[in-house]
Amino acid sequence: MVDSAEQSPSATWPDTLELTLDGIAQGGEAVGRWQERVVFAAGGIPGERVVVRLRERREAYARGEVVAVLVASPDRVEPRLPGASHMPWQHISLAAQQRFRRQILADQLAKFAGVAPELVEATAPASKPWEYRSSARLHCEGRRVGYYAADTRLIVELDHDPLLHPTLNQALAALRDALAGEPDDDQPLDITLRVSEAHGYCIAAMRGRGERRRLAERWRSLCPPLAGVVFTVPPPHTVPPVGVDTLVEELDDLTFLLRPTTFFQVNVAAATTLLNLIRTGLGDEASGRLLDLYCGAGTFTLPLARAAIQVVGVEEYPGAVADAERSAAVNRISNVRFVVGRAEAVLSSLEGDFDAIVLDPPRRGCHPQVRQALLERAPRRIVYVSCHPATLARDLHTLIGGGYTVERATPVDLFPQTPHVESVVVLVRS
User: Fold this and answer.
1) Residue 293 to residues 184, 247, 311, 357: CA-CA distances in angstroms?
2) pTM score, whole prediction
3) I need a surface site. Which of 26, 106, 349, 429 has the fewest CB within 10 A?
4) Which runs of consecutive H residues, i.e. helices, occur in 13-152?
5) Is the dihedral of CA 365, 369, 372, 374 positive or negative?
6) How many Cβ atoms from other residues are within 10 Å of residue 27's Cβ?
């Protein structure tokens, strides 16, 4: 082990080193410095003195894992599932996680978009720090089932995930039992599980080679809350489901009809928090004509339609739009219209003006054509729901340069025990 006092600034990286951590990076790693070079330390917390084993070395920085804590932060807590890469913040207290989310968002927006840190509000807290996930993607090989380890295709077997809704953990246990009764087959199998928080049952989608119907039937017999299993196969092939193929969920007193592979927010409480922030951000424009880009299954489109003159939703995945249209029909909402297509391909061709635009893009953020089209349409307000601070900052830089001002930015604790930073940013035309 090497301490910073023992080497010159030009020294090569050692295998392990001791340092004090003084910051937090966007990806969730704690940050320290060794010989004026940055070290990202997974498993650390700002304020700690730690020993780090390096796994990646570059000229200006290195990455590694904390292997010993010499001076612990008061924010350190006992992890529930040590070593689980899908919840790398489980060793940090919930209050500290919320502080770090705000800090990460404020740092990114200040550095890349020039947004004053005081415009970034405190993190909107999660209603539950555990058992909040209403969906899971599992991977199977033979009789092994679990998640992929971070940045690999290696399955880490899983008996129980403390982040999952209890019904999903029940389904996971039953799946392991069902696989134990199957012939040993190393063909990979992907399974998407989703629970209805409103009604307490779940459905699954299976994707993989081979005949899986017998496995699905056995799984259902072992798990009463598993109401159905669908099989995702490339068109034009179709395979009948085992049981039901639609999940019924409730949000904002509305009914949503969802197939298991359609994107929906990770839990209803989190979706409600986002929806309330969007409504507040829209202000008086909520009663006007709205555009909802990257609308998915209409998670925000349908609730917003109850106060608006009209809402147009744009989504590139036809299955999600089909679910949105089914949900609109069952709720008797007629002042919505959905357009299938990429936002960058259809935004400039939409007819009429919009008083406000809501957008919730994927991690990559908005296509340059979308940013340009937003400026050309010049709605009075834009409410941007983001899942990645860096791409958000890039997009805000363009919008601010085109005449918009950030009114406020609110980080949301959507995924406790992880460094994921969801946020809602309100922009007004200057």
Assistant:
1) 45, 24, 10, 7
2) 0.94
3) 349
4) 94-113
5) negative
6) 12
